[in-house]
Amino acid sequence: MDLNLVTENQLKESFKDFKAGNDQAFTVLYAGLHKALLANAYFILKDVQLAEDAVQEVFAAVWSKRDKLTIETNIKGYFFIAIKNECLNMKRKSKRTILRENMTSLIEAVCNYRVMDVLENKELRKMLIDAYKAVKLKKIAFDKFYLEGLSQKEIAAELGQEEVTVRKQISRVVKKMRDNLNGNL
């Protein structure tokens, strides 16, 4: 089923039927929107597999929230905004994952040095530890994120803070450490 062939009224009717428990109506929604959402996701992510994952996530979210979800106006518009937001979230998570992996690798490299590299790694380890100690900011979130491997959401829940606050605390410590390291090089 092509998006151009499915009218907004048909989508609204299918959505209403889907909310009423008709699983076949979900298939109509999926078939009517999948290709266009996939194209939109690919335009944002530039990766077919990630775009497909984003589309699946959006449809899975709609499926799981169908009892609570209300779409009063434009079904197509709702799905296009949902896919855009999912893609942006995926990009954001990807950047955080890369940053976390880089920092984790650096910390592991410093902590797990080989005997042949003792002098060089001791210097690097000392520089990292000095840079960490020189940071006069709250480092609890940083420790939990990089050393304990907790997600920002888990840290926020544990500390009773907003996720945004945790993210800012971590980035401030990383920035200060980077500045301290750059000052020592």
Layout: helices, strands, pairs:
Blueprint: H1 8-19, H2 23-45, H3 48-64, H4 75-111, H5 118-134, H6 140-147, H7 152-159, H8 163-184
Helix pairs in contact: 1-2, 2-3, 2-4, 3-4, 4-5, 5-8, 7-8
Poorly predicted runs are none
Major sheet details: none
- Under CATH, the topology of the largest domain can be stated as Rna Polymerase Sigma Factor, Chain: A
Q: How much is the average pLDDT?
A: 81
Q: What is the CATH level 1 assignment of the largest domain?
A: Mainly Alpha
Number of strands: 0
Task: Tell me the structural class.
Answer: mainly alpha
Radius of gyration: 23 Å
Portion in beta strands: under 5%
Second-tier CATH architecture of the largest domain: Orthogonal Bundle
Shape, per Cα inertia axes? elongated
Note the total helix count: 8
Q: N-to-C SSE series?
A: HHHHHHHH
Measured distance between first and last alpha carbons: 60 Å
Count of structural domains:
2
Supply the CATH superfamily name of the largest domain: RNA polymerase sigma factor, region 2, helix turn helix motif
**Fraction of helical residues:** over 70%
What is the compact description of this entry?
This protein has 185 residues and is mainly α. Helices cover 78% and strands 0% of the residues. The chain is elongated and about 65 Å long.
Written overview of the protein:
This protein has 185 residues and is mostly helical. It has two domains: 3-91, RNA polymerase sigma factor, region 2, helix turn helix motif (Rna Polymerase Sigma Factor, Chain: A), CATH 1.10.1740; 113-184, Arc Repressor Mutant, subunit A (Orthogonal Bundle). Helices cover 78% and strands 0% of the residues. It is built from eight helices and no strands. The longest helix is centred in the middle third of the chain and has 37 residues, at 75-111. It starts with 7 loop residues before the first helix and ends with a helix. 16% of the residues are buried. The model has no long low-confidence stretch (mean pLDDT 81).
